[in-house]
Amino acid sequence: MSASLNKVMLIGRLGSDVKTHQFEDGNSIANFSLATSKYYKNKETGDKVEDTEWHKIVAKNRLAEICSKYLNKGDAIYVEGKLHTRSWDDNGTKKYSTEIVAKKIEFLSSKNNQESNDWEISKDDLPF
User: Fold this and answer.
1) 3-class SS at 97?
2) What does the alpha-carbon distance between residue 29 and residue 23 come to, in Å, rounded to a whole number?
3) In terms of C-beta density within 10 A (0-12 exposed, 13-18 middle, 19 or more buried), how is residue 88 classed?
4) Are 35 and 15 a contacting pair, CB within 8 Å?
5) Sequence ranges of the domains in the chain
6) What is the mean pLDDT of residues 62-90?
7) How far apart are CA 16 and CA 68, in angstroms?
8) pLDDT digits (tens, 9 = 90+) for 100-114
């Protein structure tokens, strides 16, 4: 048997407020963007350059509720999860989106550190 690993760890800032959707069956999902940046010096000009990557984050059920309640645009967080690519048909064109499905989120912004800041999903939160 071959082994595989699908794990993502990011530290960044929310690029948007959390958008949450509650389903009729009681489950919920939260979506937000996360920016991760690296900085380097341009060799020719000596200027400091910022290179930012944007990530789509998805949280489910209890973790989605916690994100919705405590997180806002600009907050710093640590996210641990897995990559998930989904596809759909858009008028005959196949579209794809790769997201990070969060399993653990830690709040790093000082205003959130006043409360418990380490949230993980339980087996009850898993859809499978």
Assistant:
1) strand
2) 8
3) exposed
4) yes
5) 8-121
6) 95
7) 12
8) 999 999 999 865 444
Spatial separation of the C-alpha atoms in residues 14 and 75, rounded to whole Å:
6
Residue 94 pLDDT more than 90?
A: yes
DSSP 3-state of 112? helix
How far, in Å, CA of 87 to CA of 98, rounded?
9
Judged by DSSP in three states, 83 sits in strand
Could you give the C-alpha distances from 80 to 2, 49, 95, 104, 107, in angstroms and in order? 23, 27, 25, 5, 12
Bridge partner residues of 40 (DSSP):
49
Residue bearing tokens 């489950």? 27
Six-digit token string for 127? 């859809």
Contact status, residue 83 vs residue 104, Cβ threshold 8 Å: no
SS3 106: strand
Q: What is the predicted pLDDT for the residue at 128? A: 35
Q: Which CATH superfamily is domain 8-121 in?
A: Nucleic acid-binding proteins (2.40.50.140)
Q: What does the alpha-carbon distance between residue 63 and residue 56 come to, in Å, rounded to a whole number? A: 15
DSSP 56-86: EEEEEHHHHHHHHHH--TT-EEEEEEEEEEE
User: 10 Å Cβ neighbour count for 72?
Assistant: 13
